[in-house]
Specification:
Rossmann fold, 3 domains, alpha/beta, 418 residues, binds iron/sulfur cluster
């Protein structure tokens, strides 16, 4: 995680209405050179300033599209990404060099992305190859990384013939890898899925893989503690079609199978029917008990299309669920969190109005601790991916984008919904 210096007190002491007004003033001063992107998991206070909202890849693609549309007379210079670090990296990689991508708080990282470090990945790659070769294996390992990973991991995957995936297109990307990726498939091929074991496992199940036998987990913490193959046995590594990195989302892991049981029990008591809808970053036991699972965009679309009178229990980040619940209520659609736990992304939560105003004050050349003195415009908190990393990471992103022909969020397991 990067370190974010404290803001001057003048920012943290401002009242919410004053912050919102000041952000509006700065936006108008900076004009069309600026676009503000807001991830779905942001608070309402931040989302109200966003020009576009969406999931991480959609927002990066929007930034890339806007940069392309603009003319030299009306350029896009600044993208303020109200999300987390890996998202800002993706936006930087997909936009031209002239566009500065800014993360309002540098400490807004992603615990899942941090679970896959470059050195650990190289160590895993070498030791898994060695373990397999000792057993007479002559195949290839095709790496896949969820976009919720650092640019360095995306670059590793790109360099080794693999692809990125999102929660919307993970099945297509896994199928591509099972067909041999850009090469010819052999029975010896293996997949290394980084960094979210749950998305990897849930996707493998949908592709008909018996994950009890044909998957294993590589835990880099165990590898660092001296356990070979990250805690897996050589036989498990050999039998595994999909080797899952031991990463997870600290938000979605809070949903437990018993939360689904509680919803079912409440329905039985009250004679209601609640559809359980979860994100595939939840563990397999939760996804198995849910009626539907799919990406953030799929969840939003499903609730928007829900029939009046229907009831939903949704297993994803709190701010998003509260927002879609408010939007759905006037249509008579009842939406609640799957559990009462505080399932919020604490790193995303670091992005707030004071930090947003601080970066805009700097861009407008009005930063002096809000005393009002004019100065030179400054870009603060710019996220810049080194050229070599960018080149290789783009290989992985491009392979995914070439495959992603289907619209977002297609992982439905249930034909009808009450
Ligand atoms: S919700 Fe989970 S995966 Fe998404 S940014 Fe937060 S910690 Fe990372």
């Amino acid at each position: 995680m990067l370190w974010q210096p404290s803001l001057p007190d003048a920012y943290t002491r401002m009242a919410p209405d004053d912050l919102a007004r000041a952000i509006g003033v700065r936006r108008r001063e900076i004009g069309e050179k600026l676009v503000i992107l807001g991830h779905h998991y942001q608070t309402d206070e931040v989302i109200r300033h966003a020009d576009h909202t969406g999931d991480s890849l959609k927002l990066s693609q929007i930034a890339a599209g806007l940069a392309k549309e603009r003319t030299p007379a009306n350029p896009l210079n600044y993208v303020v990404f109200c999300g987390v670090h890996f998202m800002a990296e993706s936006a930087d990689m997909l936009t031209p060099d002239e566009v500065a991508v800014i993360l309002p708080d540098l400490s807004a990282g992603c615990s899942m992305a941090d679970m896959a470090q470059y050195d650990d990945t190289v160590e895993a790659w070498d030791s898994i190859h060695a373990a397999l070769r000792e057993q007479g294996w002559r195949g290839r390992i095709i790496p896949i990384t969820y976009v919720n990973s650092s640019a360095a991991i995306k670059a590793f995957v790109g360099e080794h013939g693999g692809a990125c995936c999102t929660s919307s297109n993970a099945r297509e990307v896994l199928r591509w890898a099972l067909r041999g990726g850009d090469g010819k498939a052999t029975d010896d091929d293996r997949i290394l899925f980084l960094p979210d074991q749950h998305l990897g496992r849930n996707t493998a199940v949908k592709e008909g893989i018996d994950v009890a036998i044909h998957s294993c987990v590589y835990d880099p913490r165990l590898a660092r503690a001296g356990e070979s193959f990250g805690g897996a046995t050589p036989e498990q590594v050999f039998a595994a079609k999909v080797i899952l990195w031991a990463g997870h989302c600290s938000v979605h892991k809070l949903f437990r199978p018993e939360h689904c049981d509680q919803v079912r029990a409440q329905d039985a008591r009250e004679g209601t029917r609640t559809t359980i809808l979860v994100h595939p970053e939840c563990c397999k036991e939760v996804v198995d008990k849910a009626d539907l699972d799919g990406s953030t965009e799929f969840i939003i679309r499903t609730i928007r299309e829900a029939a009046p009178g229907s009831r939903w229990a949704v297993g994803t980040e709190t701010h998003l669920v509260n927002r879609i619940a408010r939007e759905a209520a006037p249509r008579g659609v009842h939406v609640r969190m799957l559990s009462d736990c505080q399932c919020l992304c604490t790193t995303m939560y670091r992005i707030d109005e004071p930090h947003l105003l601080w970066v805009l004050d700097n861009l407008a050349g009005k930063f002096d601790g809000r005393g009002g003195r004019e100065g030179r415009p400054r870009i603060v908190n710019q996220i810049k991916v080194p050229p070599k990393v960018r080149e290789q990471a783009l290989l992985a992103l491009d392979r995914m984008l070439t495959l992603a022909t289907r619209p977002a969020g297609v992982e439905m397991r249930m034909a009808t919904v009450d």
